[in-house]
Amino acid sequence: MLTVHAAPLVLPVGAAAVAEGAVAVDGDRIAAIGPYEEVVAAHPAARVRRWPGLLTPGLRQDRARELLTRCYHPDPREADELGELPLWGEEFERLAATMDTARRAGSVRRGLQRMLRHGTTHVVGPFGGDEPALRTAVSRSGLVQTQAQGPAGPPDLDPFAAGGDLAATAHGPLTVGGRADFAVFDVPDEAALRAGGARRCVATVLAGRLVHRAR
What we know:
- This protein is an alpha/beta fold.
- 28% of the residues lie in helices and 29% in strands.
- The chain has helices at 36-42, 64-69, 79-82, 90-96, 101-116, 132-141, 166-169, 190-196; strands spanning 3-10, 18-26, 29-35, 47-50, 54-57, 59-61, 71-72, 87-88, 120-124, 144-146, 182-185, 201-206, 209-213.
- Strands 1, 2, 3, 4, 5, 11, 12 and 13 form an eight-stranded mixed beta sheet that branches.
- Helix 5 runs parallel beside helix 6 (132-141).
- It is elongated, with a radius of gyration of 18 Å.
């Protein structure tokens, strides 16, 4: 079913911003990008989803491998003891010493889910054959695997933590005919997005599927 995703501002990256814009999605592909009224007029039978804020390409998580293999993502039932943020460094090593396979797999699943909640659609590997369970979990998540040089510093679920702008942090531009991988953030513009970070994500669309919705 064709769906139109509308937002007060669409930033395709590599093309002009569209105020009161929309992205039409047909299956896993983008069918149109433009002003809302024009997109809806061209696709009158489409379902319409209206979002607040800013619609952008999905983000690329350069530290995905570390976040999944060198961090522990606490279960919500562990929040009182461990908090809600990923644990890494000495805290991770302490937990890893006694962590069984099931607990490690649960951490990986939660890490992938939390990436989606931060507008991530692409993850930097490698997720190689030496870790088949990890490779399978990433594949099942639907996140697109890619290669890039990751930044230095502590791993962070927020891809903007590395300091890049949207063009440097997005997986690439939104284009008609391209795969429908994008995110929506409840902020008014790119400056507010960089200041508030990807935690302001309210929706993530992966290959045309709504995989995260905060409201």
